[in-house]
Amino acid sequence: MSPLWSLALAPLPLAGAFLLKKAWDEPGPNRPRFILGGWGLLAVAIAASVPLMGPARGPFVMLSIGSTVALILVAAGVERRNAKKKALRELAPEPSDRRRVVWRGWLRGFLAGPLAGVAALGCGLAVAICAPGQIQSRMVIGGLMVPFLWAGGMAWTLSDDKILRAFAVLAGVSVVTLGAAFLKGAL
Questions:
Q1: Average pLDDT of 149-176?
Q2: Residue 172 within any structural domain of the chain
Q3: By CB count within 10 A, which of 83, 113, 125, 134 is most buried?
Q4: What is the pTM for the complete model shown?
Q5: Domain range holding 20?
Q6: Residue 85 domain flag
Q7: Contact by Cβ (8 Å): 134, 78
């Protein structure tokens, strides 16, 4: 019965991936709606698949369909270029125009290192403790997520000019994910 449910739910991740690609391609006033709608449809597809196909198979099938459609949409936009033709050289991007202050460097280092690490660990723990499925699978997935999320948090923090935004996002992710993990573990 599972293949029938995956066919019935397939339009949700299809439409979600399409909306996300449209938001990427067409920046404008509707872009936030496309992003929210795309992620919302993917979340609904995953949530609907759990009772219909099981806590392990359902999310796997929906994420596989969504990522395959996204890959096809991105591959459809690939343009072939002549390798022998020299590209026009562009100047390197300018560094941030803010003046250099020592405390900003130290704060940025703290955000990129320990705080991004705590946020990544929180996400890994939340997946390992709160996600559906076998405990061994959850632990492996949660553990494998941590280094990638930490690297992403570091790269984003160091490239973003807004230190307060980086602090707010990393602190918020840390509080929410660690809170969810500890609440689930306490129950």
A1: 89
A2: yes
A3: 125
A4: 0.52
A5: 7-76
A6: no
A7: no
